[in-house]
Protein 1
Amino acid sequence: MANLLTAIRLLLVIPVAMAIANASLFTSWLLLALIVIAIASDYFDGKVARAFKTASARGMLFDHGTDFIFVTTALFALSTIGLSSILLPLLIVVAFSQYVFDSYYLFKQKQLRMSFLGRWNGIFYFVPIVLLASSRLPIFEQVQDIFNLSIVYINYALAVSTLASIVDRAIAPLLQKDK
């Protein structure tokens, strides 16, 4: 059941990214609904896995990998319309690759090794996506420019925090060797 929820989010990757890049593809309400469904599936998949005692390292990798694909693709779509630098999705690719590599190969764990900053970045990557969908709603038409400016600044802040997360993960093994 949990993997089904994650799969729903995976199936939404292309439609959401295409709708971000092309505002006329879906209504603004439909885009926002799809994003809310994706976020809800992310929120509930882990809870369902734990409730049904089906949580596993593979399920965690599927969940986090799907989050990575969803936000990276959506943020890349934002860059195609000028609301994000291509830098943020590229940094997310580096950070996620590092996350998988150091969890499984460097620390030789059997599941992903989460970090405080990486976890919060993962949550906040959804913010510009939600803001973009919200900014297209007719009720916010008069303040869309404020939303767009907020999206740009949030993306730069996320690029800085993602870079900090990459550095934090890079020095973590060095700090552990000192102990």
Protein 2
Amino acid sequence: MSAGTRAAAALAGAATLLAACGSGGNGEADKSAGAILSDVSAAVRGAHSYRLIFSGKDSSGDVNFEIDVASKNNAKGSLTSQGATAEFVYSGSKFYLRGRQFFDKVAGAAVGQRIGDHWVSLPSASAGVTQLQEFTDPGKLADCLGSEHGTLSKGGTSSVNGKDAVVVVDAGDKPGTSPGKLYVATSGSPYPLKLEQTGPAKPGGSTTACGGNSTTTQGNGVFDEYNSSISVTAPKDAIDISTLG
């Protein structure tokens, strides 16, 4: 072998080694669907912050929300339903909501007029708020992703915003579960990158914590900004919902 050939072979070997070292593959693409979901659950449970942008449909029309989660049930964002948008803050044991048009739509014009542009505080156990905890509590999100599902299979590989992913398909064939797909990162921590709901929940679910009684018929949620710095501050001078009668 000539010196030039040896040099070329050495460079090729070095390039192969560097590519392998820099690929960042986490091995998820080679695992079973159940094993992937187990790893996803553990990864989410260990995350202290993330962002979720969701768009979907339910019986009332389009439903959209954006959530920045700073820690367990410590979040802020916005939600849109029936064509009206509201801001929200979830801090400690209180959920705060602001949006005149939103209150007009969901509670009536009289209530909207009384509230105006003020923040309103609701107990975290209020209807609707408990369902939001599925997304604002990393532990609960981990439980829902890891256990509340139908028959699983693998759906090949894909990418989400330039990040490689392996796809786990949920048949949604058990009571309270919905058919869909979960896109899981195949480099770094196996975080969920995207969650798709492709059909309505199967009737008969016994849990509401993981969307068992959700009216959402389809949706698409994209996760990012894991473990980033997010600041959440409770609004001052919010109106207590119980004082509105």
